[in-house]
Amino acid sequence: MTALPLVFDAPRRGMPPRHLADLTREEARAAVTELGQPAFRADQLARHFYRGVTDPALMTDLPAAARQDLTEALLPGLLTVVRHQTADNGRTRKTLWRLHDGALVESVLMRYPDRATVCISSQAGCGMACPFCATGQSGLTRNLSAAEIIGQAVAAAAAMANGELDGGPGRLSNVVFMGMGEPLANYARVRKTLDALLTPAPHGLGLSQRAVTVSTVGLVPAIRRLTDEGRNVTLAVSLHAPDDELRDTLVPINTRWKVGEVIDAADAYARKTGRRYSVEYALIRDVNDQPFRADLLGTLLAGRLAHVNLIPLNPTPGSPWDASPLPAQREFVARLRAAGVATTVRDTRGQDIDGACGQLAAADRVEGVPAVALPTPQLEPPVPLGDEADQADGA
Ligand code: SF4
Question: For the domain 19-76, what is the CATH code?
Fold first, then answer.
């Protein structure tokens, strides 16, 4: 296994108290035993947690005398709702969460006719410093714990089950790691989160592998590690430029791992999983939306098991970065398709709730805690996958 370089060693300060979701099943059973309870109580606690039950009074299968101790020890409240904002006729809901140390993160739940997707954050802030991204400008506050990441998905699943979005009760079907942070820079906890998302109840949410998407700006050793570890989730590579000259400035980590290396690693992932990967490309006016760059991208990706997902930049007030105009978007799409590259343009949900990212968290700046924000290119779930992806999943 490739040793991860220092770039992945994000700050550990401020990590939250231990939570059941941070533990393996064996560790959880041992922890319950240490509290003087039979090991099977860990399964009961897990069932409550993954159903979104947080009130000990509702855990009627646990002895009343033990509920408080068990929940305090293993189900501490890690995410506090600061506020919800809804959009798209109640079918999109963005939640601002406060963590135990005051850091702020966001998740966005989106309901579609055929699915419900939550976009979750894996870090408070981000250390990747992409200049067009509000989150990148604030820097990294800290990694989220596995339980803090999992908790966002559990809350979304509960919101769907409880009918909190317009359309009545439903089921969370998809999770995308496209909120705040670079997921593969918090590898171990994201890996643990994947286990929780994919594991059937009571120790997880039981989602399908093809319904979970991990995005990355291109941390090549971590992509290779994910490949080796054999989880067939969907990989999304945030490329944003087809050439190193531009990408070195738009995605600074490119100075470490070049476009060719990133695409090689994504290709290896596709070969191993049989699953098409997604290339995310934020279309930025007069920066990366020129016809010649569409041609470069088309040449780069032609013949690969990849799909381009174009994202018209969602501009942040005061930022010099702006979305490509529609004619430029159309030209870009046409050139990619002419090169034989499957291409979609992402529908940007939630624009009327500051879906342009960061503004929600920035508005809630608290003393001593940096304002943090969702990255600009975000939200819509990944590309519609082809048959080959479904087959690879064994679905
Ligand atoms: S675009 Fe993504 S990787 Fe880049 S700074 Fe923003 S959150 Fe981080």
Answer: 1.10.150.530
Task: Identify the weakest region by mean pLDDT among 25-29, 186-190, 202-206, 353-357.
Answer: 353-357
Q: What are the residues whose beta carbons fall under 8 Å from the beta carbon of 159, sequence distance 6 or more? A: 52, 93, 109, 165
What's the CA-to-centroid distance between 325 and ligand 1, angstroms?
A: 23
Does the beta carbon of 382 lie inside 6 Å of ligand 1? no
Please identify, by atom number, the ligand 1 atom nearest to the C-alpha of residue 129: 5
Q: Residue type for 19, please?
A: H
Q: Confirm whether 148 is a catalytic residue.
A: no
Q: Is 351 a residue whose pLDDT tops 80?
A: no
For residue 115, with 0-12 CB atoms within 10 Å meaning exposed, 13-18 middle and 19 or more buried, which class applies? middle
The pair phi, psi for residue 186, each rounded to 5°, is -125, 50
pLDDT digits (tens, 9 = 90+) for 221-236: 999 999 999 888 999 9
Q: Hey, how many other C-beta atoms are within 10 angstroms of the C-beta on 89?
A: 10
For the CA atoms of 152, 165, 118, 172, the dihedral, rounded to the nearest 10 degrees, stands at 90
Across-strand partners of 237? 216, 279
Question: Among the CATH numbers 2.30.30.110, 3.30.160.40, 2.40.128.20, 3.20.20.70, which is that of 78-369?
Answer: 3.20.20.70
CB-count burial class (<10 Å; 0-12, 13-18, 19+) for 219: buried
Instruction: Give distance in angstroms: CA of 180 to centre of ligand 1.
Output: 7
Q: What are the structural domain ranges in the chain?
A: 19-76, 78-369
Residues 37-64: tens digit of each pLDDT: 999 999 999 999 999 998 999 999 999 9
Provide mean pLDDT across the span 148-170. Answer: 97
- Catalytic residue check, 106: yes
Distance CA 202, CA 204 (A): 6
